[in-house]
Amino acid sequence: MKATYFDDKQKLGLPKFLEQGPNAHVKAQMLAIFMVAAHKGFWQTDPATLRRMGGELARLVGRNGLPGSGHTAPNHPMWAWLAPQLDAADAQALNTRLERARGEDASPQASSASQPRPQPLNQARTRTAPTHTPQAAPANAPPPPRYSTLTRRPPATQPAALPSAPPETLTSLALLCLLLGLGWSRRPLPSTSPRKFTDE
């Protein structure tokens, strides 16, 4: 990975390509992954390579900001491990950018002289909140309009029940159906022998 993307072993011009426009964030992210791997001991390399690649990462972050991933979070422990291995100028640019990303004030005197400090959110809200008191409505005022009303539906009417037949009638009908079924099943079946056709 290092030989292809950063040393340009294949002569594809990838280091220059990765510095153009939004590709710089991709390059910073890739360098950050290298530095995290070295910090955790997954990648063994010499101090000169760490200083060169870490310095390039610090310059990219100082110029373009953090690329915005877990490996480049402003509180990641990799930054504290990397800073002593960088040149003083790269370490200072990186530290300034990380302090801004963490919301810390890198230079209190310069920032207080150049722009006022933002007020806390709760104080700004109490200052800008309207100070009006609700007035009581007059006694003869009509009620406020209602935008939705609930109406009660009349209960659904039940269909009229059919007159019930006495049990004797139902028993008689069931017995009649049974007898008709038995009689129907005992009828003679039609003949299944083939018909003989004659020439007439």
Summarize the structure in words.
The chain has 200 residues and is an all-alpha fold. The chain has a domain at 2-105. The chain contains 9 helices and no strands. Helix 4 crosses helix 6 (88-102). The N and C termini lie far apart (102 Å). Residues 108-114 have low confidence and may be disordered.
Short overview:
The protein is mostly helical and 200 residues long. It is 50% helix and 0% strand.
Key traits:
50% helix; 9 helices; mainly alpha; 200 residues
Describe how the helices and strands are arranged.
Elements (H helix, E strand, L loop, with lengths): L1 H5 L7 H4 L5 H17 L7 H18 L12 H6 L5 H15 L5 H7 L6 H8 L38 H19 L15
Helix pairs in contact: 3-4, 4-6
Sheet bearing the most strands, described?
A: none
Q: Give the rounded overall mean pLDDT.
A: 77
C-alpha termini separation: 102 Å
How much strand content do the residues show? under 5%
- Please give the share of residues in helix: 40-55%
What is the overall silhouette? elongated
Instruction: State Rg.
Output: 45 Å
Count of helical segments? 9
